[in-house]
Specification:
The chain has 596 residues and is mainly α. The chain has 2 domains: 288 residues, no CATH class; 258 residues, no CATH class. It contains 27 helices and no strands. Helix 3 runs antiparallel to helix 7 and helix 5 crosses helix 6. The C terminus is likely disordered. Keywords: Cell membrane, Membrane, Transmembrane, Transmembrane helix. This is Cytochrome c oxidase assembly protein.
């Protein structure tokens, strides 16, 4: 690693902390707390820059290891394996800096730092909890780096390393009270994009896709935090403009210019690091949009104001964008269409029913999270159960029928296709696709969330809703891949058994909900008190029926798809098999001649 970059990271962290601690108002005073002092006001942003920068350095070394040519059996190259030593070092730096941020966050919110306040603060102050998780993830990456031998394991370690800043970003306090769900998602996307951008720049790659994500996150966060007319009149607006200018300079620097490789190798990491500093400064400066704003009960509990009525038209027309799953649905649809067009340019066939199934699955994912269904789901249990079944059943079934993995392998370059095939054949992926594991995972999302009280404990947290939706969707994909996947090893009778086992799960869960004498999450729903749900228990019983009905729709779809597939296979089988009982004629004669 270039020593100048290390000095640059330490200097950028110290400069950011010094400027914010010396000139910016203390964030604690904005919340009516006593002044935190220079140590907290300067140390917290400095340690935040150091933690995210160290994570970017670790990501850069992991990227270099993944992209280096692999040896036989997918083993890392000697240079890639040597880079894991740097991954271990920078992950340990990230862990220490993240722990410092967690402690300083507790001190800022409590006014003192003792052993008891640290334990209590880390448990009940979400930003401190997020940074503690970031430290634990970094420590785990540092411990696992010494055991990684293959590039596939390095890819897994890279994904785990990105989970650290994601935990910190999703639990951070945003600058938009009215819509802190959207603002929080924008902050998380921007943080991950900047960390990955800096890591890629350090590894000698441009990762230009990070720039649109970071720009979109900055624009969305600014739109909720500062009015357009106050961009030049407030410190937050000026920092936002400075960040946009840096993004533009970074985009220009990332353009392919072979004659300026040396300048690009220095300017791109410098601009990326400066963006990380501005991003940290924006989290420490008060936003003018919510000055004097008093959050309503719905905003406090859900993150935004729920409408005062709910009809079928409202469920269809009252859209609210989900920046995570809604964007995922749109990007997946665009990439799929691009892959199909590439195959057509090569004059390779691709069934239209596959394209229709994939685009329908993306549409279901978009509707379940960004339409009125997604808007009402956090506050109405019956809508939540409808969303659950769409995410866990119908969307995964349609996506698996679209065969996106096959399309990706066929439309990619040979080296990329080989790596995709190797990733899908990884032990972790094969374990997730085991029939028993997939069935137990689906059972866990039903009986491990609602009867255990976990759902009630997570209802008020936006990050928890993202985790639950991701769990519903991923377990559904694993299950449908077992039932409908072309490369699944389960025989036809085994697939039918899986279908009936899933039907039994849905029936048992619906029966449990119908027989329950009190609402799940009763305290939350009665505190929310939406006027169109006068009886939470009746709404819960409606949700039980919806879960039963909507849960069986993808099961029926799976059965129809399996029956059609078996019928097609049976029609092809006689043509592909030799005519064993033909006593005269060319088929039997050719077979005998070949044997002789």
């Amino acid at each position: 690693m270039n020593r100048g970059l290390v000095i640059g990271l330490v200097g950028a962290a110290a400069l950011t902390g010094g400027l914010l601690g010396g000139f910016a108002p203390s964030p604690a005073e904005g919340y009516g707390l006593p002044p935190s002092g220079t140590v907290v006001d300067a140390g917290l942003p400095a340690m935040r820059v150091l933690a995210l920068g160290a994570c970017a350095f670790a990501v850069g070394w992991l990227l270099a290891a993944v992209r280096a040519p692999a040896g036989r059996d997918g083993l890392l190259s000697p240079a890639g394996y040597a880079g894991l030593t740097e991954v271990r070092r920078w992950s340990l730096v990230q862990a220490g800096a993240s722990l410092a941020v967690a402690g300083l966050t507790v001190a800022e919110n409590s006014g003192s730092v003792t052993l008891s306040t640290l334990f209590v603060g880390v448990r009940y102050i979400e930003p401190a909890t997020g940074w503690l998780l970031c430290a634990l993830v970094a420590a785990g990456v540092a411990g696992a780096a010494g055991w990684v031998l293959t590039w596939r394991a390095a890819v897994g370690l890279l994904l785990v390393a990105l989970g650290g800043p994601l935990c910190a970003a999703l639990t951070a306090t945003t600058n938009a009270q009215r819509s802190h769900d959207i603002a929080g998602d924008a902050l998380a996307a921007q943080t991950l994009a900047l960390v990955f951008l800096l890591g890629a720049a350090l590894a000698g790659h441009r990762a230009r896709w990070c720039l649109p994500v970071a720009t979109a996150g900055a624009v969305v966060a600014a739109a909720y935090a500062v009015p357009a007319g106050k961009l030049l009149d407030t410190g937050y607006g000026q920092l936002t403009l400075a960040g946009l200018v840096l993004l533009a300079l970074t985009a220009v620097t990332a353009l392919p210019r072979p004659r300026h490789k040396l300048t690009q190798s220095l300017a791109l990491p410098a601009f990326s690091l400066a963006l990380l500093c501005v991003h940290t400064a924006l989290t420490r400066v008060a936003a003018p949009a919510d000055q004097g704003y008093q959050a309503s009960k719905h905003v406090y509990l859900v993150g935004y104001d729920l409408p005062d009525r709910m009809t079928w038209a409202d469920l269809a027309l009252r859209w609210r964008p989900d920046l995570v799953f809604g964007s995922l649905a749109v990007v997946a649809a665009v990439l799929y269409v691009a892959g199909v067009r590439r195959l057509r340019r090569r004059r390779e066939p691709w069934p239209r029913r596959y394209t229709l199934a994939w685009l329908s699955g993306c549409a279901v994912l978009l509707v379940a999270t960004s339409s009125g269904v997604g808007r009402y789901a956090p506050g109405v249990f019956s809508v939540h159960m409808g969303q659950h079944m769409l995410l866990a059943g119908l969307a995964p079934a349609l996506l698996v029928l679209g065969h996106g993995g096959t399309l990706a392998r066929r439309a990619s370059r040979p080296t990329t296709a080989d790596r995709l095939r190797a990733l899908l054949d990884a032990r972790t992926v094969r374990l997730a696709g085991h029939p028993l594991v997939a069935w137990l995972a689906v059972a866990g999302t039903l009986f491990g969330v609602y009867p255990t009280g976990l759902f009630e404990a997570w209802q008020q947290e936006h990050w928890a809703h993202l985790v639950m939706n991701a769990a519903f969707f991923l377990t559904g994909l694993a299950l449908m891949r077992v039932v409908l996947g072309r490369d699944a090893s389960l025989p036809p009778i085994g697939r039918l058994v899986m279908v009936f086992a899933v039907m039994a799960l849905h029936a048992g869960f619906a029966a449990w909900l119908l027989g329950l004498g009190h609402p799940v999450g009763e305290v939350f729903y009665r505190s929310l008190a939406v006027p169109f749900v006068p009886d939470p228990l009746a709404d819960q019983r409606l949700g039980a029926l919806l879960s039963w009905v909507l849960g069986e729709v993808p099961v029926i779809l799976a059965v129809l798809a399996l029956v059609r597939r078996w019928a097609v296979d049976d029609e092809r089988a006689p043509c592909e098999q030799p005519h064993v009982f033909t006593l005269s004629g060319t088929p039997r004669a050719a077979e005998l001649t070949g044997r002789l």
